[in-house]
Amino acid sequence: MSLPAYPATTPSSIPPQPDPNSNSQPNHPKFPSSPHSPKSRLIRSQSHVVSWTSSIALHCRHGRLPEAAAEFSRMQIAGVSPNHVTFLTLLSACSDFPLQGLRLGGSIHAYVRKLGLDTENVMVGTALVDMYSKCRQLDLAWLVFDEMRVKNSVSWNTMIDGCMRNEEVGEAITLFDQMPERDAISWTCMIGGFVKRGCFDQALEWFREMQLAGVEPDYVTIISVLAACANLGALGLGLWMNRFVMNQDFKDNIKINNSLIDMYSRCGCVRLARQVFEQMPNRSLVSWNSMIVGFALNGHAEEALEFFDLMCKEGFRPDGVSFTGALTACSHSGLVDEGLRRFDIMTRTHKISPRIEHYGCLVDLYSRAGRLGDAWNVIANMPMKPNEVVLGSLLAACRTHGDVESAERLMEYLFEVDPGGDSNYVLLSNIYAAVGRWDGASKVRRKMKAIGIDKKPGFSSIELDGSIHEFVAGDESHLQMQSIHAMLHDLFLELRMSGYVPEIEVQKSYDHH
Asked: Which of 15, 245, 278, 309, by CA, is between 20 and 30 Å from 188?
């Protein structure tokens, strides 16, 4: 299968090769037209290319692709021939800004195709593979990759990353198996790809295979594995990763330490997160934000707000994430006035335009405090359409306070923004049941059945010896189920002896007929 030809029909297209005798360049004095030796002409030519490429790179770094394309056109008109660095600069920019980069990237491809650089120059060929992959044109990336006469490990890794990026996992695994030699980047492409797709168990499985293969992980691998641990709550493996990092040269890497803080916080170990934070030789805004959000999500509102103020005293300017953490802390602790004050500081003092998550925090702040009317006002006056998270927060408060009328109004919005969400239907059914309106509960269940929505079973998980075990309600499939039931029975007896009365209304209401 041959590569496609890209006609130069756009303003950013590459013009034909102009008069080679011209020697103009951007913002540089012209060389005199006196005779020169071959060596002098070569030096002059190289100087021209470097100057033009630097000018193009300046536009590329700031995402100004049309200006970069125009500068490239002027370079051609001036009679200066680009080299492979020029092409790499333009192709990298197309990869970094894929929404506007495909047309220019196609034109560059047509140009390098004429020169044979796409098949003969491994760096240019690899840059084309990367550009097409990030522009969601995986079939074209495959064509370039297959026609490259010389491939190195970077070429293979780029193609694997492109497959994972475009959710072609099977092709990525096949390519990985075909690699002549795999390095840490090859494994990281697979592990990071699974993490980005939310397949955290598979990411950890691949990391274990990497360990068995004797390949030493780099800091990017560590960050991906820590993200998987954070999402699974795999504290045991996270602790092992922390010990591993302490013996590496990159133990003081800010990104790794930020990932450790996030992992410990999401696993509920804020004390360990703080320990990592305090031992960091250097901290970034992300470091502070990770601690603030970690404290907030684990119910330590006082510490979250204290760290927010300390961060400001240290000279860091809070961003939207900082205020999300502070507002969440206020919400979980019922500090309504403090939350409103922080919101006002964000908008008036720091001139940060509130995003939907900030309005969601306000809705949650009012909802948890029982001020449903104020929560409704926030939703009604938001400059953007509320999503299912914002509406679901208020719906949960309606159940707590038995407000059926508000719940029914909310469901009208929820039916529109999240028609397939089973949890909202179940919650509304339970709200009806809690006030004895069994007709309303039955009507919701009938509607779910009519539009094909099934109640997704909830599951719990536990980590044991580095492995994650998941259970759904009524699950009898685990090999140690007898021992599990025996332990649950003992725990239930201890709870009863302590005076605990189980809250079973929710399950009864949903199953009631």
From this structure: 278
